[in-house]
Amino acid sequence: MKHTLRISVGECIRRLRIDAGMSQVVFGERCGFYQTYVSRVERGLANPTLNALDVIATTLGLSVFEFFREVEREHFGLQSRQT
Fold first, then answer.
1. For residue 78, what are the contacts with CB-CB under 8 A and spacing of at least 6?
2. How far is the CA of 20 from the CAs of 13, 15, 45, 47, 59, in angstroms?
3. How many Å apart are CA 36 and CA 51, to the nearest integer?
4. Which of 1, 17, 39, 69 ranks highest by number of CB atoms within 10 Å?
5. What band does 77 get if pLDDT is binned at 50, 70 and 90?
6. Residue 37: closest CA among 26, 50, 24
7. pLDDT tens-digit profile of 24-55?
């Protein structure tokens, strides 16, 4: 499968969620999303809206701009702020 931006976004969400110590169920509840939607986003199968990404970023303790910087770092293989 081609490594698309959607996949990079999902992988970044998964990493940040796990780093925050949240299961998909807990994360989904805090975001107001179903766990199945969180799973689909993390696997690159769903294309979240900007509003959904804002909610996700906020739940992770980031601004949407900080979140996209994290995605950029992971997508292009740059060093993450957490390493």
1. 72
2. 10, 9, 23, 23, 10
3. 18
4. 17
5. confident
6. 24
7. 999 999 999 999 999 999 999 999 999 999 99
